[in-house]
């Protein structure tokens, strides 16, 4: 029977920092990059040995700038990688040279261990074992262990024993299970807090089976033992089922094949972004996924600015930039597909609103559907002005070539910024806008080029003329259009925006 760990999957909030650590410091190969199999708008990265063999794989779902989780019972809490015993000192020196905080060496179950954290705070242990030493530097070639925190450790141990693991030893509240290839450590976390999903948390560990026939045997056996919900999935590179052990940690059971080379040449693994076959592979989808550079490749360092943001470079940038402000409940990538269609060679800079209502993002708070928090608008506009100046300096942007495109709440915010900081925004496309300031100041917008698009059936449409009249009275070069649509965006908006951009 095949046994051992197939892979571990965690969540990261910063794809570039994640790549720099796991490829750059640890030295693993990026063997697959795909859209998520549950959500193709979520990037999924697999690291491992150069062949992408089961037992070497660590994967990350990218929740870019997503909320952090909490480690607790019912979770995998630590990842351990096997290194030659004689290389403990080399890894310690490497970490210090790269100014990474590292603890150890200490000893766990008689093995020397170095302990550090990845950029998301996930605990990573480098464990000295008797594997062959292939020289230095050399990346770890396989997983040594994972540590599971359980509120019912005896039940967790019993459950995992049916997957080729046997109990070995107990040390300091940790029960060690061993297979022919690796280890599961079960820590008694009774009385501790439960884990909460989010970035910086390990989602699940996958255990190996040889093929779908063995997987089906496991499914039948689990069903016979009333193991709870057991779900079957085709992940293209392996087939798997998911189940929760008695302590609530998510366990995946995954086949060894067909493997990572099913859709890429063995020497080209991880070079292309691939979309799962059950999703339509479109440019609109691809443009929303975050970009990253491998270690040593040219990159644009992302800066810590007042707004969470995502910068997307086209294949052939023409120097123009479209700065994107989403509508209520959106995020920094929502308008990227539309903007890319309008201007394929423009750099896209999407912002995420900072004012939240009932968990959804906005650029300012509202008191009712048509009245708005004036102080919040002013403070957020001030923050935007700081972001604008910071982004221009950090990313080398030409303010004369920046077009702001906002939709609904984002368009309203752009209008407020123009009133409160005249001259900052010089070109804008405002989709479904209305004036949100109670008092529109007298300002000089001469030289500002504006496109506003109102929906013919938009219930907010009657509020648009006040904004258009103010823009015209302030001297803006205004092109006010009406699209055959409601409040939602439509093909008409794309056509109008394309035509306006070409005319500029």
TrEMBL record:
VOC domain sequence ranges: 4-129, 142-256
Highest rank taxon of the organism: Bacteria
PROSITE patterns in UniProt: VOC
Membrane-traversing stretches: none
Cross-referenced InterPro entries: AB_hydrolase_fold (IPR029058), Extradiol_RC_dioxygenase (IPR052537), Glyas_Bleomycin-R_OHBP_Dase (IPR029068), Glyas_Fos-R_dOase_dom (IPR004360), VOC_core (IPR037523)
Pfam families: Glyoxalase (PF00903)
Matches recorded under PANTHER family: RING-CLEAVING DIOXYGENASE MHQE-RELATED
Protein name: VOC family protein
Species the sequence originates in: Paracoccus caeni
